Amino acid sequence: MPSEKILAAKQQRVEDLTSELKGATTYVFVATRGLTVAQDTEMRSELRKSGVKFEVIKNTVLRRVFAELGFEGLDEVFKGPTAVGYADDIIAPAKILAKYSKDIEPMESKGGIIDGKVASIDEVIALSQVPDPETLQTQVAYSLLFPFTKLAMLVKAVAEKKQEEGGEAPVAAPAEEKAEAEAPAAEAEAPAAEEAPAEAPAEEAAPAETPAE
Question: 4-130 belongs to which CATH class?
Answer without folding.
Answer: alpha beta
